[in-house]
Structure formats: structure tokens, C-alpha cells
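Hi F.,

I've been meaning to write this up properly since the lab meeting, where we talked about keeping a consistent format for the predictions we share between groups. The idea is simple: the sequence comes first, exactly as it goes in, then the C-alpha cells exactly as they come out, then a line or two of notes. No screenshots and no reformatting. I'm using this chain as the first example so we have something concrete to point to.
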Amino acid sequence: MKPYYFKSAQGNVGDDINEWIWKELLDNKIDDNSDHLLIGIGTLLNHRIPQASQYTVISSGIGYGNLPPLSQGHWNFVGVRGPITKKTLGIHSDLSLLDGAYLLPQLRRLPANNGSRIGYIPHVESIILGNWEAVCSHADILLIDPRQSIEDFLSALSHCDFVITEAMHGAIIADAYGIPWVPAKAHDHINERKWQDWSQSVEVDIQFNYLNPVWKDEDYTLGRYLKHTIKRNALIKSCFGKHYTPAPNATSSKQVIATTAAKLKKIAQTVHPQLSSRPLITSKVQRLNDELNKIKDA
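Output, unedited:
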């Protein structure tokens, strides 16, 4: 089987663990046979899945695009991320409902706790678009970049008593290691349906804590700066003709940064962090491991 997953040019820890986790768990079954795809961790069940003769789905979920072509090839659903995915795809058999990132603790140990911080994990698109470095510095909260390697991500996580996270896999990985978490949302690209799919699988209620979005415009060349400024203030688009594209959001002011930092700090001080039931997670991880062992022994 060849693992199929989303590859971000900037890196994204929730996707990037697919690069090695299946090789370590299913070492005798992983190869470069693109005619048999392993659909792993991520929101991958959509129309973009490449054509193949066989598909083995382990823990993936829906959330983007149209539904996958289930009439194409042979589909073996070992497990999906949660009950919303199962119901939407019309799967009637009993199967594992758990994100595969819960298997991480059996492969990578969390470093010993080296501090007592509160962490903030932005969505990968949010940290590209927004000046969250300034917000976290102002709030005295540890910024955990989701673009890091899993080793660096876990090292940062080990410094935290709990995390506030806009990244769903930030919450999942923290939960897998028993670190409490608080769900947050600052930008519109956060897919709440994905969160609900996962949270229902571990029987946790999700209530988002909303933050003001912040922005950064890293393109400082004079010509582009002037063009963006004109676009932001223009009442008509005709001067740009058919080549018009919206200007990026202007860099957030110091006042906006301070306001968002104050709200982040208030969330840290007033919202009780969550953690799923440890016996439930133990049982679900065991179930998923049992299914993986069946694949290895087949």
C-alpha cells in the first residue's frame, strides 16, 4: 500500500506524520504501489483521491470537496475519524472511529515536562497569514508552530500545562498525550465540521472561543506596497482590468495585536481546558491497533 496524504509546502504536523507513522505501524505492508492507496490521517475523503484499484481507509475524515468516488475500485474501511464521516459515507458496518494521531504516544515519547506554560497553536494557514508571534509575545503565551517536525512540536508541547488551539490536530495530539486543550477560532478557514466529527468520536463537546484575526503583509517591495494600498482604498476595480486580484489584508496594527493578545490571555485565565476520557481513549486505541494487526497478518 502507498500512503496518500496532503503535503503542505510549508509543512503541517497533522499531515506530515503520515510520512512515517504507517511505515512504523505497518512496515510489511507499505510500499510504492500506487494502485493500492492507504488513505490515512487528515481530511482526505473527497473527490481529489487519485484513481486506484484498491483503497484502505484508516482514520481519515470528510470535510472538503465532494465525496470520494466509492463506486471506483475496492474500498476497505478499517476506520474513519468520527461518526459524521461514517454517516455521510453511508457506512453501516462496525468500524474504528478515531483519528490515527492517537497512535503517536506508542511511537514517540513526550519529553519530560520542562516548564509550566500555556501554549497557543494556530491553524497552519493562520500562522502564515497572521502575526501570531506578536500576539503570543504580548500575551506571554508560548507559540507552538504547527509547521514544525513532530519532534520539535512535542518538545514545545512538553513545556505546557495546557494549550489553546485553532489547529484541530493540535488538540488531537495534545489529547493523545493527556495534555488538556481549549478550542479556539480566529480565522474563517477553520472547518468546524471536522472538529465536530473528531470530538464526537471521543465524546467531548466542542465550544469554540473566538479571537480577532490578525494579519501580516510580508511583501514590502515599494511597487507592490503602493499597488496594495491603492487596491485597499479604491472604490472601483476597473483600473486593474481583468488582472485584478484583491489585495491581502493589511498588517494588523499594534492596537489590534494588543486587543487580540488580551482576549487570548483572558481565555487562558477563564476557560476550563478539556481532556477526553482516558479509559475511552485506551479502548479506542486498542481497537484501532487490533485492526492494524489484522492488516499486518493478512
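Notes:
The two ends are 13 Å apart (CA to CA).
The chain has a mean pLDDT of 91.

If this format works for you, I'll send the rest the same way.

G.
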